[in-house]
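Issue: copy button drops trailing tokens. Both records pasted manually instead:
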Amino acid sequence: MSDQTRNVTPGRRPGTVRLEDKTEVAIPAGWELLPPGDAGLTRRLKALGPSWTVQEKKGRRVFSRGVLAPAENIRRAREEVEAKRADPKYERQLEQARKRREAKQEVYVEDFKGAIVAFLNFHPIHAGFADQLAELVAAHATPVGSGTVARTERIPIEERASAATIAWMRHHTTDYDNMHIARVRGERRQVRGQLAKASLRVLQRYRRGEKIPGTCPLKKALDRIQEPNAFYPDDEEE
């Protein structure tokens, strides 16, 4: 089995792991664990030969616990990566890659704001509110690593924009964060669905160009939040 690359989970006993079929086996002799945290080193190690990626699922999330591989491969991978990173060319390549990522992120943020404004489809007299809301939602949802629905590529940007907007409104225009929701399967999703319908009803008033009263939850939220980088509760994907 040590000649195969596979995903495993921690075993119940020290020095063991579980295979995909739940069989518990001993870690091959001479193998060590490379802890997670250095993607470049991990990629180089996996390129040197068979390895076992240790993953552990907690709830709906899967966490990496590192990569098991022959100790000699880990030593060799470290040496090769260190030598590469010591080369002045490496720093220049990193800087160029950083600038490309930043440029790509700037384009995405602008595209995302545009998608939000299109989803809102506010009457021209409320265009200012649409721009303000788009700025706030994008500031929260688009940062790399935020883990929000805006960062997924599984759905079109139009759907990401609408989901992110509704999620923002759930936290800022409803009492969702203070609600006591029964720990019953599907209950939280049902509550979110009800709140989403309420948020859409609020948006319809802006789309129709109605006069917005001071009691409007969205208007109150926009008036209250002055800084795009103000604190936001953790957001979950829709």
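Record 2 (pasted manually too):
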Amino acid sequence: MEKVHQSAVVLSPPQSEWDQIQAIRKKYDRNVRRWMPHITLLYPFYPKAQFESVVDQLAVACKGVCAFEISFSTIQYFQHGRSSFTLWLAPEPQEAVCALQEALWKVMPDCDDTRKHKDGFTPHLSVGQVRSRQDLDVVLPELQDNWTELTVQAKQVDLIWRNDKPDDVFRVGYSIGLGTGNIQRIMM
């Protein structure tokens, strides 16, 4: 099956916990309008027209991974080239998110793009971008000093999709319960 950049499988904090994250994203994240706060698990993914044909396989993987608690206490960064940086929240325990990603990848082995980075899969929740080392040196400590640790329950993964511009905001198509494999169709 062909993969597209208009869909993904993600782990999102409950919407009730978005305020602190979105406050940072509104200021620093050029993708705040398009993406909800999330940890990318599989991306690119199959087109939404194919969700129905793969959701049962993903449900089997999710049933084998119990719900878990994750905390976000530190803000880290990736460097891209000499002067581009992505700021992100580090989920802890990282191992739980990695185990979930691996379980999903095992049933969708061609959706391995998130694993192809130099250091493999790095679970992260992006909160923004800065364009210079000088900005990074100012923004990162300020964000970390003002950040209040956030702990949430990871209870489900979401299959998300978007249209092309101008209506290119990601929407949840299906949610799949961790530990249960229960499938909920949200919006298609």
